[in-house]
Amino acid sequence: MKNQENNLLWINVNPALKIFDVQLLKQLSKTFTVNCWEYSQSTDEAQSLEDVLVLLHDYLKQGDRPVHLLGHGTGGLVALLYAYNYPERVKSLTLLSVGAYPAVDWQAHYYAQLRLLPCPRSILLKQTVYNLFGIQSPAAIYELRDRLEADLKTALPIHTICRNLSVSPRSVSVPLLVCGSEDDVVIDRKLQADWQPWLKTGDLLWQCPQGRYFFHYFCPQAVAEQISTFLNRGAQPITPLSSSKYCA
Fold this sequence. Notes:
- It is a single chain.
- The chain has a six-stranded parallel beta sheet.
- The C terminus is likely disordered.
- The longest helix has 17 residues.
- It folds into two domains: 164 residues, Alpha/Beta hydrolase fold, catalytic domain (Rossmann fold), CATH 3.40.50; 49 residues, no CATH class.
- It is α/β, with parallel strands linked by helices.
- It is 39% helix and 17% strand.
């Protein structure tokens, strides 16, 4: 039976990449009521990060109770900033592939490499596919490269070739679960460990042993189990979660 008291809202601002969220959301929907809030960048009317937060607030203030916010990458950044601004509307916060410097995402990594490496964009995108997904078949490489290229056009544009957005670490007042992957080269172990000084009692930092930047795609069941455990504890005493040994 689903827990109707625990409504989850998944934040997505990378519509070209939402296919990688599907299996995790299916796992979570077995236990919780899961809703999705999505933003897609329009070439006709570009929005800033602040504009997107206003849109999200307009949506959430229609409800009469706080929700559990979840997000991956840039979606996690939006969820985090919203929790900073409106903690009374957030029951808990779950961040996937979000480091202590939360604006760092795959696009920040890509643009940093693009500024450093004198190579065609298509070649760098293929290398980025390996960094994000590991070794793939030739057909998969081209499909994933096209998805990343589409994301550069349709995602919330917080980074450009000229400038990467930077957001400093700070604590958040709502209960927090931070999930990462031990083999992620974008949100690496240091960026994950940098959360430690900012965690309060009851906050959790969990690492999946594999899966890289999209570990929730490769290991949806393991990630869903950690999220479910965190959410179901509620006001109960919390003990630290250790890294899983296997992905299921």
